[in-house]
Write a structure and sequence with these properties.
Blueprint: E1 7-12, H1 16-21, E2 29-33, H2 43-55, E3 63-67, H3 76-83, E4 90-93, H4 99-116, E5 122-127, H5 130-134, H6 136-140, E6 148-151, H7 153-160, H8 172-184, E7 188-191, H9 200-213, E8 217-220, H10 226-233, H11 237-255, E9 261-263, E10 266-268, H12 270-285
Parallel strand pairs: 1-2, 1-8, 2-3, 3-4, 4-5, 5-6, 6-7, 7-8
Antiparallel strand pairs: 9-10
Helix pairs in contact: 3-4, 9-10, 11-12
């Protein structure tokens, strides 16, 4: 089944009620949070609550990730020691600046997986600094565990000394660069959150901008944002019809010993075939 990255919802790890409610959330990825939403004095409690939640993994309908603390916090070893167990699909690492940070965490993961007889879990690095933006391609391509990166706009703007607003121009370059680097590395890119929970029209517009930039989905902070996000990032009827045509014609062309072909006057090659196949796999494996 194709891994979907249309929506990644953050759930505070220190709130047992929210962790329980998350069992009914239909986001593609549910991400239990140990970082920004959890005060320092609550970190240990959050780790234990997440550990318990992972034991009832079968009750959750989505992929389950955990957002650790940042590499610079020094808290990741304690995070991983508690949460790396059967039931976890991956981790989101916030504020990743360079490849060295990922490699250090990966060594820790390898040891825990070996000792606990676990399959390799995924890593989603979160790009939230000027250094991280510059290094996005290297970060995204440094490990087979990485299938996606996520853009964290608020910490980036803070790093740049820019005040956030809905129409902020300050993060435009970074927002546009990240999905390009991700695509070059062969992974998906998940866009930053939309903070105004009441502005659904604004969310839809922002999702469309993200999709046009090359993002495959969006980080969200409330279940009410899921439907809009999935609607925008789900292939349109026109895209599905085109994908079906490309898939069919290209297969027929290869059976005749040819490679590239033309459809409606447009040249179609293996790249277009792969894109069409991805669209059709998404349609087959899910719905809006």
């Amino acid at each position: 089944m194709t891994q979907l990255f249309r929506s990644l919802i953050f759930v505070p790890g220190n709130n047992s009620r929210f962790l329980e409610k998350a069992k009914n959330i239909q986001a593609d990825i549910i991400c239990f949070d140990l970082e920004d939403s959890v005060p320092d004095e609550e970190k240990n409690n959050a780790r234990k609550l997440i550990q318990d939640a992972l034991k009832s993994r079968q009750s959750y309908k989505s992929s389950i990730f955990v957002r650790t603390n940042s590499p610079k916090s020094g808290k990741i070893p304690d995070d991983l020691k508690t949460i790396i167990q059967k039931g976890i699909d991956g981790i989101v690492i916030p504020k990743v600046n360079n490849v060295a940070e990922i490699k250090k965490i990966e060594k820790n993961l390898l040891l825990l997986e070996k000792n606990r007889k676990l399959k390799p879990i995924q890593i989603i690095p979160s790009i939230e600094s000027a250094e991280g933006v510059v290094n996005t391609y290297n970060i995204a391509s440094c490990s087979k565990r990485i299938q996606a990166v996520v853009f964290g706009v608020f910490d980036l703007l803070n790093d740049l000394g820019i005040e956030y607003s809905k129409d902020s121009e300050g993060g435009r370059y970074s927002r546009a660069k990240i999905p390009v680097d991700a695509k070059a590395a062969g992974v998906s890119a998940i866009d930053a959150i939309w903070q105004d929970l009441k502005d659904i029209k604004g969310l839809e517009k922002d999702c469309k901008v993200g999709k046009d930039l090359g993002y495959t989905g969006k980080s969200i902070i409330h279940p009410d944002q899921i439907l809009t996000t999935h609607k925008v990032f789900y292939p349109s009827k026109k895209e599905i019809q085109w994908a079906e045509k490309v898939y069919k014609f290209y297969l027929e062309s290869t059976k005749k010993g040819k490679g590239a072909t033309t459809i409606d006057g447009k040249m179609i090659d293996e790249v277009h075939f792969k894109q069409a196949k991805t669209v059709l796999e998404i349609v087959k494996s899910t719905s809006i």
